[in-house]
Amino acid sequence: MVAAPMCHPIRLIMRLLRISILSAVLCACAGRSPLARLSPDQGPAAVSAAQLAYTHQPSPAAQLRLGEAQYRAGQDTAARATLRPLLDMSGDVGDRANLYDAAAADQLGALSDAHHGYAHWLATHDDGAVRARLTNLSRREADAAAREAIASERTLAASSLPARSVGVAPLVVSGGDSALAPLGYGLADLLITDLSRSAQLQIVDRVRVDALLRELTLAGSGRVDSATAPRIGRLVGARRIVNGVIDALPGGGIAVSTRVADAAQGTLVGQPVTERTSLNGILDSEKSLAFALFRELGVTLTPAERGAVEQQPTRYLSAFLAYSNGARAEAYGDYRSARTYYARAVMIDPGFAMAGARLQGVQTAGNRAPNAIPLTTAGIDPSLSTPSPVVDALNPSPASSLGTFSDHGDASQRAIIAGGIPGSLNIPVFVP
Fold it and tell me: Which residues of the chain have pLDDT under 50?
């Protein structure tokens, strides 16, 4: 019987060392989010282990592990230097290198690089945590862009903006009716979604419009009218800006008027479009407004685009009203209240995808934006933290201010609300 040859002592030591290195890294990262930081006592050890492994046997995978360890240890500049040579690689190494480089760039304030890296990762991974990071990053980018645009306003040339670039501002509520004020934000959101269905238009994200209005302290009044719209368009980078007015009519009716302004010419595009409806019919009227705006913008929809526009985001008015309150709170930079309202919208209608997406987008945001507008200016109740009775869906003030209501106790409940606006409003409510 021939005895098996003994391993060379140095080789044995190196093999055991590699195993211990791998174990140390795995133990340090076990149970953590992929982008979680290591504690101060774990970070240096993980970096040393990864560095030793890479030095002993250089490879893209070992270089990636070193960059990951450096990021998790808080060594963001070193992590980026290690990871950037791997960004153009295909497969898992390139994807993860982009992810960790984005996270390090995010920490260092390199917003454009971080945006690119997160988007690269999301192109092939359904990752809610990274999507939330990208949403928060987009807010920071929008705030920075708003400040920069205002500072360089004199040099902005609206004539150089793409002819089919379009922004949508919150609609103004005539007379400042607090019961209808949230609708201006909810309707603007629906119009943004519908207008974005056309491949012919470049729609400015609502986050950019919100950031600019906060910087200009216009969100408190929502006053984007025919006089101010061209300026808003220039500042957000939109050649066309959609704005409008909501009027309460006698007997509980509503008139919604929209118009399109040219940021370069300072004139209206086409003709103003007006829809007269009831609160119950507001979702159908929004579709009519959207199709009319396409005509005024000179856009011919394909059958597929038209079909997409025709889809209702929710069947329940109460869900849309809760969503509208959330959109207004988010525009003011009050993310805590926005989370509450979006959660309420999802609770009323679990299939309301827009509300679910917005809720996810504010889940990891702080309670308030750095440039948030005082809630007392908006008339929003900052103490609201849990879903309240559906009667409060129309107005965030205490339910008693809306008068009496009755609950018929089935899936097609109708809350009869008096005192919010002239006349009585019948609000269909879905109770899961």
Answer: 1-7, 19, 21-22, 24-31, 377-432
- Interatomic CA distance for residues 108 and 284, integer angstroms: 46
What is the dihedral sign for C-alpha 324, 328, 330, 334?
A: negative
**pLDDT computed for residue 408 by the predictor:** 29
Can you give the C-alpha Rg of the chain in angstroms?
27
pLDDT the model gives residue 306: 96
Dist. CA 96–CA 311, nearest whole Å = 37
Task: From residue 158, give the alpha-carbon distance in Å to each of 32, 40, 217, 245, 267.
Answer: 48, 50, 22, 24, 13
User: Using an 8 Å Cβ cutoff, are 263 and 240 in contact?
Assistant: yes
pLDDT the model gives residue 9: 55
The 10 Å Cβ neighbour count of residue 271 is 11
Assigned CATH topology for domain 9-125: 1.25.40
Residue whose entry in the numeric block shows the structure tokens 């149970």: 31
Nearest to 211 by CA among 131, 130, 138: 138
Length of the chain: 432
How confident is the model at residue 184, as a pLDDT?
Answer: 92
pTM reported for the whole predicted model: 0.71
Structure confidence at residue 12 (pLDDT): 52
Q: What CA–CA distance (Å, rounded) separates 413 from 379?
A: 28
Cα–Cα distance for residue pair 200/298, rounded to 1 Å:
10
Domain limits, the chain: 9-125, 161-313
Are the CB atoms for 147 and 218 separated by under 8 Å? no
Q: For residue 117, what pLDDT is reported?
A: 96
Which overall architecture, per CATH, does domain 161-313 show?
3-Layer(aba) Sandwich (3.40)
Closest CA to 371 of 112, 136, 178, 144: 144
